[in-house]
TrEMBL record:
<dbReference type="Pfam" id="PF00881">
    <property type="entry name" value="Nitroreductase"/>
</dbReference>
<keyword id="KW-0288">FMN</keyword>
<dbReference type="InterPro" id="IPR029479">
    <property type="entry name" value="Nitroreductase"/>
</dbReference>
<dbReference type="InterPro" id="IPR000415">
    <property type="entry name" value="Nitroreductase-like"/>
</dbReference>
<comment type="similarity">
    <text>Belongs to the nitroreductase family.</text>
</comment>
<keyword id="KW-0560">Oxidoreductase</keyword>
<feature type="domain" description="Nitroreductase">
    <location>
        <begin position="10"/>
        <end position="174"/>
    </location>
</feature>
<protein>
    <submittedName>
        <fullName>Nitroreductase family protein</fullName>
    </submittedName>
</protein>
<keyword id="KW-0285">Flavoprotein</keyword>
<dbReference type="GO" id="GO:0016491">
    <property type="term" value="F:oxidoreductase activity"/>
</dbReference>
Length: 194
């Protein structure tokens, strides 16, 4: 099987991380893949903020966690048994799951395709991470987390212009524990038109 497609089929969201930091070479390869993602009109306007500060990551992840209301999982419907999500387990304190590296993708606030640009970049980043043995997880609610006092202060400290808005977080680190199995794919999701 083609290695790129194999990577796409095997990658899973990781929510349990070992504490050691990923290497600079791994991070550089992941970021390079990110900045080579397609973007609307080839604007290349998404900014990647890389945070490897344990305290900052925990606090921002705690804020993000507090924004999640309710519990989505049930006995029959859950995110992951091997790698529980905050939707599965109320006791998880941070939506960043202890990841040693957290990326925040920022894009122009008033650009129609900024969310799409960030999502395409996030996919490149997560596939590149998997290809070098680094786990990742796509974490939503970045906009709301950066409306907090800490979020606004971090955006300023990180030199990201206020005309930009945080759109998504991606956690990165070495997986801890059993690598999660994929769920069966739901049927009838492809419609061929001739």
């Amino acid at each position: 099987m083609n290695e790129v497609i194999k990577c796409m089929l095997e990658r899973r969201s990781i929510r349990k991380y070992r504490p050691e930091q990923i290497t600079e070479d791994e991070l550089d390869a992941i970021l390079l893949a990110g900045i080579h993602a397609p973007s609307a009109g080839n604007r290349q306007s998404v900014i990647i903020a890389v945070c490897q500060n344990e305290k900052v990551n925990f606090e921002l992840g705690r804020i993000n966690r507090s924004l999640f209301k309710g519990k989505m999982s049930t006995e029959k419907s859950y995110i992951s048994k091997e790698q529980p999500s905050i939707a599965d387990e109320a006791s998880i304190p941070s939506a960043f799951y202890g990841a040693p590296t957290v990326l925040t993708l920022f894009a122009p606030r008033n650009f129609l395709y900024s969310v799409a640009d960030c999502c395409v970049m996030a996919q490149n980043i997560m596939l590149a991470a998997h290809s070098v043995g680094v786990g990742s997880c796509f974490v939503a609610r970045a906009e709301d987390a950066f409306l907090s006092e800490l979020g606004r202060e971090l955006q300023k400290q990180w030199g990201v212009d206020e005309s930009y808005e945080a759109r998504v977080h991606i956690t990165l680190g070495y997986p801890d524990g059993t690598y999660p199995n994929g769920k069966p794919r739901k049927e009838n999701r492809i419609k061929r038109i001739s």
